Amino acid sequence: MRSTGILFFLLFPLLFHAAPTASQEYLRAKDYLGFNKTIVTKISTPVSGPGRSVIMLETPFALSDFVSPVRSKEIEGHVIEKIQLVYTTFAVSSSFDQQKLNLQRLTNLYKLLPEAFSSAMTEWELVGQSGATSPETGRTFFHGFIIYFREAQTSETTSGELNYISGLFYKDKLTHADSMKLISATGSVTLLDGSKMELDRNIPDDSLWRYVQPSSSGFSVTAARWADLTHDSIIVQERSNESGYVRWRHWKLEDHFEEPTGPATFHVDPNNPDTAVLAAFRKNNWKNAIIVTDVTGSMSPYTAQVLATIPKLIADQSIKGCIFFNDGDGRKNSSKNVGSVGGIYPTYSTSLDSIMNEARDAMKHGDGGDLPENDVEAVLYAINKMNPQGDIILIADNLATPRDLELVEKIGRPVHIILCGARGGINPDYLFLARATHGSIHTTTVDIYDLDKLDEGNVITI
Asked: How far apart, in Å, are the Cα atoms of 153 and each of 176, 222, 306, 347, 399?
């Protein structure tokens, strides 16, 4: 029923010459590493964040065997979102074959943890560290794999995600006037090199953190957003480079701004989610919208983006309501019948606090269960019971296929799908949903329209 005949390709250059007997899963990971490459001075030690855990599988300098292979057991059975293969660019000899070593490390990971290669949605990244200048310094750098995965949802992880949401939005979590540094009325600041810069109040939320320096040494800025509609102040999240401790700062437009560096050199905190929700609402002008949001496990960073977007939508009078869904309120997977799974929390409120409370209730009562979610059921609720005429915006987990695609013919309205966690590739089931409903797909970097206008057999490149 879901076959469209359209072919979707991701075209990547090859990095390695693999053996012809290698599996397709292995070749896919190898090709992705050839496409997604980054150079940093030295990679920061990652820490676990809301909805995401981190394991580091280390290999020694210039060697391919794992120091502690037993750690891979901690990942088994979990959904893997991203894998980084980390190495140093320094070589003692010009004849040293770094690609061969990286290939052997990848092969050893495949032997140790083949399930890490099973999903086409997993993001792979090759990270070269340029800071080592000798074998002695090279041995102090990390080499091997950093694996980001989802823990099974429990009451403890849900509580952590609820606290994460609260910490971003409730002002009693913020530090105020003692850290404020006001700028002059002209809106200009003096940068570290003595030059002047005019502050741009139109910097989008998902780019703002790139312009902000930490308030003290030993901390890195990991997120930032405008604190009000007038863009007179900002809320900044900072993380300790040493301990991973997170703190928030609430500033008036202050003199920590600097010109951002280019994408090839600035360091993105690997624990930060992509900004798909913020980017999609910034680029699209949806009207009379019902926002339908998946709030199952690991979606809290994206739920936070939804809540950060809502005040502007309310001010613009472009939102009619919200639905938060959790795939069944924690019921057993065996009792989840397509179309009546439940766990749907609607609200017509135009109060951010009320909308946030509805989101929190949906999060508290769900445990995620199995990976598929009741996306289409929630969309049908939005259309049939809330808003049959306005735009339907689905905030979906790219790694979780809808369990109820067989109901798609009942929708009869365009569904605009914002895909969260789609950096490793776009789940083809959401391409089908967008095509079948004459809707669209949106990620941080791409907006895909008019899939329904393609003829059977057409090929597109994403």
From this structure: 34, 24, 21, 25, 15
C-alpha to C-alpha distances, 394 to 200, 338, 376, 385, nearest whole angstrom: 31, 18, 9, 16
For 344-364, give one letter per residue: b (16+ CB within 10 A) or e: bbbbebbeeeebbebbbebbb
Give CA angle at 99 (95, 101), nearest 5°: 85
Q: How far from each other are the two terminal CA atoms of the chain, in whole angstroms?
A: 23
Token look-up 């863009």 returns 231
Q: Are 395 and 273 in contact (CB under 8 A)?
A: no
Give the Cα-Cα-Cα angle 202, 204, 207 (nearest 5 degrees): 125
pLDDT-derived band of residue 198, with 50, 70 and 90 as boundaries?
A: low
Paired tokens of 112: 């140790």
| CA distance linking residue 102 with residue 179, whole number of Å | 46
Give this prediction's pTM: 0.69
pLDDT tens, position by position, 248-261:
777 765 444 443 33
For range 194-209, the mean pLDDT? 62
DSSP helix/strand/coil, 242: coil
pLDDT for 270 equals: 38
Q: SS3 for 68?
A: coil
For helices 352-365 and 300-315, the axis angle rounded to 10 degrees is: 160
Spatial contact of 105 and 85, defined as CB atoms under 8 Å apart: yes
CA angle 170, 176, 178 (to 5 degrees): 160
- The values of phi and psi at residue 27, to 5°, are -65, -35
What phi, psi does 434 have (nearest 5°)?
A: -65, -40
